[in-house]
Amino acid sequence: MPRRVTVLGATGSIGTSTLEVLALHPDRYRVHALTAHRSREALLAQCRVHRPALAVLDTEADAAWLRARLDEAGLATEVRAGAEALVEVAEAAEVDTVMAAIVGAAGLLPTLAAVRAGKRVLLANKEALVMSGALFMDAVARHDATLLPIDSEHNAIYQCLPVEHRGGLARHGVTQLLLTASGGPFRGWTAADLAAVTPEQACAHPNWSMGRKISVDSASLMNKGLELIEACWLFDARPDQVQVVVHPQSVIHSMAAYSDGSVIAQLGNPDMRTPIAYGLAWPERIEAGVEALDLFRVARLDFEPADESAFPCLRLAREAMAAGGTAPAVLNAANEVAVEAFLDGRLGFTGIGELVARVRDARPVEAVRDLETVLAADALARQAAHDWLARQ
Ligand code: NAD
Ligand code: MG
């Protein structure tokens, strides 16, 4: 029986790569549902190829447009609209596997719904885990969901750890997780150089082709900060057990260091289809359509420490994880508002870290009791961020 897959955020960079891998294995996988926010043309094209049972868009107007086009084409895909429909296609009984590839906080509820329904959840949407941390991991355990990290670094670490790695790193002889970072397009730049950079420069990543939000996060190193928090939750690590290693070639995707001196690394070309195929097929391995790694062409691997004075977002994220409670949700919300403002030309690049720090100072850290606490912290941090922007 083929596995039935829902792809949340199907029209994005990860969503598109996921559909490429699925298309290589029609005998193994069927697409149950595809979702997008506003990109209705792209979703229509995907429906023509993958023939899902369901498609979801944000507004009823876009859904009606898609319904009409699908009717004309004689396709039976049912179209729904809105946030509740995202939750429905994530938890549907027919679905085995959910690719969580919506960007930002908007992905939290459908991703959690998939977890609570005990699905195999392929987690690309790191913001969901950063926001809800302990709640998310508790739900994974309680509902016996299978959580497979798709973020390339976490997927690499997952591959470098023993198969059963719950219960803390020390129990398995792991001393440190080495989280590699390309350094982004501005590696080696000073804070002064960074003041005038444009969204186009920030989105031109040297090694990876990604959506605009994560591209800006990679340029500011907030992406590495979010990943540090993500690693702490996924692998039960303390922030001081995760070391960020700048590795400009992006060939080693991350490593685990063991007490006997061994360091295990996962290598490959920087292509998200590798971790996606790993998550889809785990514990088996399938063809991903990725070019084989040619070590002679790579020739050398370089490593250097991250520059936290020019890129304060990494430090802000580490501090948020250490502060605990709602602090990571506040960090994430402020960053989402800051990145949007930067992409719209309303905030300079170095303003991203400044805005995140201001919102952090303005919002108390609260214990996370339930999802409502997280959603309230997110909303109030967004408000504080917008207020700060309005005063500039
Ligand atoms: P993207 O911007 O290319 O795509 C985002 C997708 O989510 C699109 O389908 C979009 O329609 C949908 N979407 C956006 N806002 C939405 C909303 N409010 N409600 C519902 N749907 C919405 O992003 P991406 O680069 O594919 O990244 C997706 C997630 O994966 C992010 O959390 C990112 O951090 C993570 N990730 C991406 C990469 C990568 O290589 N692109 C690598 C690691 C992790
Ligand atoms: Mg990553």
TrEMBL record:
Keyword Metal-binding appears in the UniProt entry: yes
Cofactor: Mg(2+); Mn(2+)
Positions of NADPH binding: 11-14, 38, 125, 127, 211
SUPFAM superfamilies per record: 1-deoxy-D-xylulose-5-phosphate reductoisomerase, C-terminal domain, Glyceraldehyde-3-phosphate dehydrogenase-like, C-terminal domain, NAD(P)-binding Rossmann-fold domains
1-deoxy-D-xylulose 5-phosphate reductoisomerase C-terminal domain span: 147-235
Its EC number(s): 1.1.1.267
The 1-deoxy-D-xylulose 5-phosphate reductoisomerase N-terminal domain, residue ranges: 5-133
The name this protein goes by in its record: 1-deoxy-D-xylulose 5-phosphate reductoisomerase
Organism: Halomonas urmiana
